[in-house]
Every structure is written in C-alpha cells, then in structure tokens.
From TrEMBL:
This is Carbohydrate ABC transporter substrate-binding protein, CUT1 family. It comes from the Bacteria. SUPFAM superfamilies: Periplasmic binding protein-like II. PANTHER family: ARABINOSE-BINDING PROTEIN-RELATED, POLYGALACTURONAN_RHAMNOGALACTURONAN-BINDING PROTEIN YTCQ. Transmembrane segments: none annotated. The keyword Glycoprotein does not apply. Keywords: Cell membrane, Lipoprotein, Membrane, Palmitate, Signal.
Length: 520
C-alpha cells in the first residue's frame, strides 16, 4: 500500500509538470504584442527592426532624453503610440528646452541618473564621461542598425570615435544652415553688376574687390553696412583667405596640420576685414547683435548684406511683412567672395550637426536601443517621426508631401531626431519656395573642413584650452576693430604659444586625432 501511494505521488507530480510545460509552449506560440507594420509582418531578419524575436519580447521600457526647442506633444500623443507599437517599446521621453539642455543634463548626470538613451548636443563633453564608464562603445551593436550604417556618412561616424572605437550614433541635420544675403534691388538700382544672386546649380563667385565696391556703394548711397551676430558672422570675409575666425580650428595643408588662428593667411584676412571696418562698411555693433537686432536692421534698411541662418527671407516677407515697409526690398542669397589665391568659403564645416546619441552602460539591452534608432532613420519610422501619421498630419499629392493643418503643428516632428542631411519632401512641404535657401546651404555652400572637429580634449587642453581660446578671440576682435595694430601679429602668436600653450595644445590635439583613428 505504501509503495502504491508513493507511485501515485510520483505520477501526480509528473502529470502536473507536463501540464505546465504544455501550457508554456502554447502561450509562447503567440507574440506578446504586435509591433510591426502590416507591410513588414513577413520579415524575420533577426538583425532588423522588424524581427520575429522582437515581436515575441515584452515591450522594452527606457528613458529617452533629448533637446527640443518648440511645442511639446499633447497627452495621448498618437505618434508616440505608433512608434511604440512598431518598435515594441515603451519609452519615457524626457524633453528639455535647447537653451537649458546642457545645464540640466549635467545636473542629471551629476546626481547619478544615467538614462538609457541620451542626446549630447554640440559643445557637451561626452568623452570624459565615456572614459569614466558612463557609456558603452557600439561597434559590435551596429550590426543591428543596417539603416544607420547605410544613411549616416563615414565622416560623421569618425567624429564619434575615441581610441579607435565608435561611442555613439551621430545625429544628422542640414549641413551648415547659414547663408550670406544681399539686397538685390539695391544692386540693380545702383547698377553694381550682374550675377550677385546665388542660384541653385550655379556657383558664381565675385572677388573681394567686387564686395568692397558693393559695400562702399551701400554705405554711400543707403547708409547701410554688412552685419551679422558675433565674430563668426564675418566668416565669409575671412573665407576668401582660406581661414575662419574660430579657435580650435585646424586645416591640413600637405603633410602639415595648422591652427588657423596662427596661420599666416589669418593676418592677411584681418588686414582686409580691418580695412572694411575702418571705412564704416561693417556694422560697429556686429559683435553684440542678437536675432531681433538683425531682423530690425534688415527691415529698416540699415544693412544691405547680412550673414544669418537660411530662413531670413521667410522671416522678413512672411513673418514681418517687409513689403509693407519697402515694396521694392528683395533679399537674396549670394556667394561668399573669392580671395587673391582663389580661396572661397562661407564658413567652417560643421559635421557635428545635432550631436550624438549615447547609450548608458546601465542599459538593460543596448541592442534594442540601436534597433529603435534604426527604425527612426528610415522607412515608416522616418516618415512617422518626421511627418506624422498619413491622413492625419500629411497627405500625398502627385508624389509630394503636403501637411494638413494638424500636421503643421510644431510638435509633430518632436521625435524626428534621426534626420537626414537633406530631405526635400519635409522642407519644401514646410517652407515652399523658401526651402531653396536651405537646399543650397545643405548641398552647395563652400565650407572649410576642420580636421579637429569634435576632438578628444587632453589634459593640456583641459588646463589651458579655454584661456587660449579666449585670448585668441579677444585679439582677433582687437585686430578687426583696430584696437591693436597688425604690427603686433608676431607678438600675438608668441604670447599664444608661450603663455597660453598653443603649440603644446596643437601637438596634443593632433596626437589625439591619430589615436582616435581620425588622422594618419
């Protein structure tokens, strides 16, 4: 009897285990949540964003921190719901205003809070934190991001390298969205020559003498000057000499890598710009101008040539109704001048664009974050994050995107962080003819590459770099406005090297670029 009872217990336990296992098998046949669009349901690529494995997993929850400077999304945001469904995620967007972003992220990280996915905007130091173990390199994870590898150029990946490894996903945007604008109606009225308007596909470059003559005529006949905001706004004038008035900017000439603030051509550029300033052809308030002052000076006819972001004509004509003030006013983009040696640059190249997404070393499954970004940069993910939901936020007409009234809301593109360098559908749908200025900026503007862009700061730079940059910018300004004569150029270079360690900093930066695999 006792043996039979034991046998009964054994059989009962075995039966229970088999029942549980059968239940597990049945339940695992069904995905926890549908996560891909109907068009993608048949795909089973384990490395893609639509993998069958992803469908069977629980929704991946994470905090996503990024900068945004416009309207925030509403409660029950429908675009977020689509993205979460397609990627099988539940993300908590921590959206911080751009003008507060760097400070708030620093406070967050100082408190030990490392969100799984976080944007570092240009100027923020992610490299020190990466060296301290806050983030992980992503080289081996990029196999899960085929779209990222396809769309992001190699030169952008190089900017997020440190010690030969890739540490983040670069964020693209329109390249260098600045333009040089001129009053074409004044040029025509004063008979100052043809070919001043920069048209798509046409690159006509006037000489520095041509520019001088136009600015001189504007001053004499209109009381107007060249204006901008800050010393960087004079870049088109310096670009005629193959330099840019920016610190920590290096150019490669032959086998040499040279700091432009000490380049002999910088002295030549300063001499020409100082001549323009002395003759009153450059706005004396150029260093303190803000956006409002630039707008007002353009509206009031106090400037005839203006360096600004690409949408100046849109602002003046649509937002400020300049035609009601001056019906003849016609602001058009113009190319920067060509210098005596043939140099012509509008500004320095900026491949950093919108910064980089870093993945926390505390991330539960970093692969899922790469797949998430991969979804956002192409196909349906790109479409919904940039344009919104078809039929609600946009429609297609004759193969082109047209935003609905609901789709014109600024919040619609809040998750569109994975931009392309140039997206004509988006920009022309949003700004119509004015987007041509942006297309020209993205595709045709001549820009000077900085081989040290986004370099890894070393101990010498960390100790002396900020002081060196401050000294250089102060001296460049003094040379421009005549507060210091150019006879003191050699003294300036000597002081930069001996007092502010410019030569040591340059050597450190160049060695760092080689160590990061960015310079041979």
């Amino acid at each position: 009897m006792r043996k039979n009872y034991k046998l009964f217990l054994v059989l009962l336990v075995v039966s229970f285990v088999l029942t549980v296992l059968a239940g597990c098998v049945n339940s695992s046949d069904k995905p926890a949540q549908e996560t891909v669009s109907d068009a993608k349901k048949g795909e089973t690529d384990s490395k893609g964003q639509d993998s069958l494995a992803a469908q069977q997993e629980e929704p991946y929850e994470f905090d996503w921190v990024f900068a945004w400077m416009r309207e925030l999304p509403p409660e029950n945001d429908p675009i977020k719901q689509v993205i979460e469904k397609d990627t099988n995620t539940k993300f908590n967007p921590v959206i911080i205003p751009l003008n507060e972003y760097a400070e708030k992220v620093q406070v967050m990280i100082a408190g030990g809070d490392y969100p799984e996915l976080i944007q570092f905007i240009p100027g923020m130091d992610w490299k020190t934190l990466a060296e301290q173990g806050a983030f992980i390199p992503i080289d081996e994870l990029l196999q899960y991001g085929p779209n990222l590898q396809k769309i992001i150029p190699e030169e952008n990946w190089n900017l997020v390298k440190m010690k030969g490894k890739i540490w983040g996903v670069p964020l693209l945007n329109v390249l260098n969205p600045s333009q040089l604008f001129v009053r074409l109606d004044w040029i025509e009225e004063l008979r100052l020559g043809d070919g001043w308007e920069d048209k798509l596909g046409e690159e006509n470059f006037k000489t520095i003498d041509d520019f001088y003559n136009v600015l001189k005529a504007f001053k004499e006949h209109k009381g107007a000057t060249y204006t901008c905001s800050g010393i960087g706004g004079l870049s088109p004038l310096f670009g005629a000499f193959g330099v840019i008035p920016v610190s920590d900017f290096y150019i490669k000439e032959g086998n040499e890598v040279l700091r432009v603030t000490q380049h002999p051509r910088m002295k030549d550029a300063l001499a020409w710009v100082n001549k323009l300033y002395k003759e009153g052809l450059i706005d004396p308030e150029f260093i303190t101008n803000k956006q409002e002052q630039l707008n007002n000076k353009a509206l009031e006819g106090k400037t005839g040539m203006l360096y600004d972001i690409w949408n100046l004509p849109f602002r003046l004509e649509v937002q400020h109704n300049i035609k009601e003030i001056d019906p003849n006013a016609k602001w058009v983009r113009t190319n920067p001048p060509k210098g005596p040696e043939g140099h012509v640059y509008l500004r320095g190249d900026s491949r950093v664009m919108d910064g980089v997404f870093m993945i926390s070393s505390k991330a539960k499954d970093p692969k899922r974050l790469i797949q998430f970004l991969d979804y956002l940069i192409d196909g349906k993910g790109y479409e919904v994050s940039q344009y919104g939901i078809e039929g609600t936020h946009f429609v297609r007409k004759d193969g082109k995107i047209e935003f609905t009234e609901e789709g014109k809301a600024e919040w619609v593109a809040v998750y569109g962080k994975m931009r392309h360098i140039w997206d004509p559908d988006f920009w022309y749908a949003k700004y119509d003819k004015y987007a041509e200025n942006l297309e020209d900026a993205a595709m045709e503007n001549p820009v000077l590459p900085n081989v040290a862009e986004a370099f890894t700061p070393g101990p010498i730079w960390k100790q002396y770099g900020a002081d060196l940059n401050r000294y250089e910018q102060e001296m460049l300004l003094k040379f421009i406005i005549g507060e210091e004569p150019l006879d003191k150029w050699d003294e300036y270079v000597k002081t930069a090297n001996e007092v502010y360690h410019a030569q040591e900093i340059s050597e450190e930066i160049i060695e760092g670029l080689k160590a990061d695999g960015r310079l041979n």
